[in-house]
Specification:
Blueprint: E1 2-7, H1 20-28, E2 34-42, E3 62-67, H2 72-79, H3 101-113, H4 123-136, E4 141-146, H5 150-162, E5 166-170, H6 187-203, E6 206-209, H7 212-220, E7 227-228, H8 245-248, E8 257-262, H9 272-282, E9 293-298, H10 303-311, E10 318-321, H11 329-334, E11 338-342, H12 356-363, E12 367-370, H13 376-384, E13 387-390, H14 395-410, H15 427-441
């Protein structure tokens, strides 16, 4: 069996979206003739942890954990974050407090002194360790996955010294990522980011990413013939939930139409117009008639979202649920009549293709996507006939879709999606596509 070294920061006990792609694909590598050798951080500062994901680690996988030094202890002390409290993912603000000079200074330091990211101190010790390891334990290929893009720089150094075939896998863009403009970069730092990005894109034997718009962006920065291998769904989502609330015996009002969003909602993902549409739908309905619509937000939610909900007077129609382990996601989908997908309202919105969309599709529940009607997410929903996309400001379409689904739900006519159309996006099938690239390289 051939061996592939996978360099990834995110690995169980990490939870969240960053860990899913290679945790799942590495599970199917052995049946395609490749043993995964995982190089990851020990005692890392993960925004969320999910012990349930440990069961998805392939028995054949060799996992190497090495100590990592991250600047978060200083960061938390500087900002007054309590010991043991997690640093939130992205630019999430869960409190009412606005960014002050400390927060702004911290972002400036992060952007200009930790290039490409806060894991940059791990590059040199990782290269030193892996050069020795690979002398004694050979591998046939290397995969680096980012962000954090420091992982690519580790692989780049190994590739230059050992000439092992290397695939750079981009789960998100580098300089085109939506929060890049928020890093408060100096001109010198911006040039360094672009220089390192171009080196990775031009020196890797193959570049892979998760969507078509992202592929075009990477090619504009120097990559050649970028392969698109999307994220997908795993076995937990392969059994579609086709029951209604009444059939499932859920303890909710059978007339209530429940829509759920599962995952992080940052400030740039806050669907302001959607909250207005919900307010219009429920406006003037007497409480004695019950709630016709319930919105469930499961996961970290930015304070701006809470403010929007309050401003539109729909607090009684929205339920907030903290982060749940990944093995409970399918159960939460079953409690929903429809699922919500909010795309980041940023310049790269057309290329945003979240991992959750594939598990959503496999669930059988209809999906309402708020985002570009000609973006990558809309393309997949249309292709698989699993959902509808409404533009960020298209309140009339949002209302029309929700009201139509509410009527069908009340008449028990809200039909589940045909999940046959989404089988190409199973993790097992997508792993086969990645293996084709590995086999070509060796």
């Amino acid at each position: 069996m051939r061996r592939v070294l996978i360099i990834t920061y995110y690995w169980p006990p990490s939870g969240g979206s960053g860990v899913q792609r290679w945790l799942k694909m590495s599970k199917y590598l052995p049946e395609n003739g490749w043993q995964p050798v995982i190089y990851t951080a020990d005692q890392a500062e993960y925004p969320v942890e999910d012990a349930s994901l440990e069961k998805d680690v392939a028995p054949e996988a060799e996992v190497i954990r090495r100590p990592i030094v991250e600047p978060y202890s200083f960061y938390k002390k500087f900002l007054g974050i309590r010991k043991g409290e997690k640093v939130k993912a992205g630019f999430i603000n869960e409190g009412a407090k606005k960014s002050g000079w400390k927060e702004n200074l911290s972002v400036w330091i992060r952007g200009n002194f930790f290039i490409p990211d806060a894991r940059c101190w791990w590059i040199k010790p990782s290269v030193k360790y892996l050069l020795q390891y690979l002398k004694e334990h050979t591998v046939d290929a290397i995969i680096s996955t980012g962000p954090p893009h420091s992982m690519h720089l580790i692989a780049k150094a190994l590739h230059e010294k050992l000439n092992i075939p290397w695939v750079a896998d981009f789960r998100d863009p580098w300089t085109d990522i939506d929060f890049y403009k928020d890093l408060k970069l100096t001109g010198r730092s911006d040039r360094k980011h672009h220089r390192l990005e171009r080196q990775v894109l031009t020196e890797a034997d193959r570049v892979v990413t998760i969507g078509w718009d992202c592929a075009r962006g990477l090619e504009s920065h120097g990559a050649k013939d970028v392969a698109v291998i999307t994220n997908g769904y795993d076995d937990m989502a392969e059994t579609p939930c086709k029951t209604s609330h009444s059939e499932a015996g859920q303890d909710v009002e059978t007339t209530t139409f429940t829509m759920s969003h599962i995952g992080i909602i940052g400030a740039n993902r806050n669907p302001e117009t959607f909250w207005q549409a919900v307010a219009d739908i429920v406006k003037g309905r007497p409480q004695s008639q019950g709630k016709p619509l319930r919105i469930r937000l499961i996961g970290q939610v930015d304070n701006s979202v809470l403010e929007s909900i309050k401003r539109n007077g729909i607090e009684n129609y929205v339920e907030l649920i903290p982060y749940i382990p990944h093995n409970q996601v399918a159960e939460e989908q079953q409690k929903s009549d429809a699922l919500l997908l909010f795309i980041n309202n940023t310049p790269n919105a057309k290329g945003v293709l979240t991992g959750k969309i594939f598990e959503y599709m496999a669930s059988g529940r209809p999906i309402l996507c708020i985002g570009p009607e000609y973006g990558d997410s809309a393309r997949i929903l249309s292709e698989t006939r699993t959902g509808v996309t409404a533009g960020f400001d298209d309140k009339s379409k949002m209302k029309a879709v929700i009201l139509d689904w509410m009527v069908k739900h009340a008449e028990n006519q809200l039909v589940a999606n045909d999940t046959k159309a989404v089988e190409k996006y199973s993790r097992r099938n997508l792993t086969k596509e990645f293996v084709k690239i590995l086999n070509e390289l060796v």
